[in-house]
Amino acid sequence: MAQQRLLDEELTAGLELPPIFCPLEAATNPACLRVERRAIAWIDEVGLCADARERAKVIATRSADFYSRFAPHADEDRLLPAVLWVYWGFAFDDARCDAGHYSARPAEFVPMASRVQRALERPHPAAGDDRYAAAVHDIGMRFRQIGTPVQFQRFVAAHRGWLAGVAWQVANQARRRMPDLEDYLTMRLHSAGGEPTFAMLEIANGPEVPAAEMESLAVRALTEMAIAVASLDNDRHSLARELGEAHADQNVYGVLLHRNGGSLAAAVRTATSLRDRVLLRFMRLRERVAPRLSTAGRVYVDGLAYGIRGNAEWGLRVPRYLGDRTAADHEITWAEHPMEDTAEPIPIPSIAWWWDV
């Protein structure tokens, strides 16, 4: 595709991605390394990976570090199942969503994903489960044991939303269809995996958020904005890797190039401005809403903020995105100011309501 060739040419020419603006607090759970060891033992125990190469790739996601940044104050035994799901999610995403047999075959992806979803939902294992279904069933049972029924069902619903979003992505891939910006942002609210990732905050931290708070427009907006910011950051993080694997067109940069034309540098500026405006709205709304929430509600909203920052910082360090450029604990340069500082709503109907609450 023309967008793909342009992306390849500009990346080869040394396009510099701007530093990330993220003035949110960073923290990491002190149990991170212990949880990582326990998670790797689980990966081997359940047979998640087909071979040593896949095992190394999954472990290199540093999923324990990733989620330890989302829930820095969680108890170790509550943090573990969330970390297991992140390792599982990256393995499943790489093998069956972004690439592999199912990634452009929606008629096959949907029944496969439905079987995986059902494995999470049901309380008993099944002899016919493949390795992904069996592993997610095990994780689901762990969530049942430590979470409340409401928390578990919230996660199940979020997981279903994620797989539905991926099905949309797979359908686009099969048709070689580039979504417009509104469709893309809507799809990414689901397909990026942010829904289940943030839904695990309650289970990891413990307190159940009252329904009146969790389902309020303000908390729903904060949740969606956290997912949107993290998704756009992931597009930034994964650009080089996806170019190397020849499936970088269905990201925010490809969408903007398809709609607006121009250069990749211009698309990067537009995407960065959009992302920064959403983050600024998140910060302002959080500041206004948090004092009115229960303790459980504040813990959840704080987790959204930790997650935005943690996802950004993890993505700037993890071998999954840096590859051979990875340097141990290298210094990160953060942007001091947003690309665009305005309180005006983004004029995209499906997200403009975030500025109304």
UniProtKB/TrEMBL annotation:
Transmembrane annotation, as ranges: none
InterPro entries registered for this protein in UniProt: Isoprenoid_synthase_dom_sf (IPR008949), Terpene_cyclase-like_2 (IPR034686)
Domain of life: Bacteria
Family as reported in the entry's similarity comment: Belongs to the terpene synthase family.
Cofactor entry: Mg(2+)
Keywords: Lyase, Magnesium, Metal-binding
Organism encoding this protein: Thermomonospora cellulosilytica
Protein name, as recorded: Terpene synthase
GO MF: metal ion binding; terpene synthase activity
Top-tier EC class: lyase
A Pfam family it matches: Terpene_syn_C_2
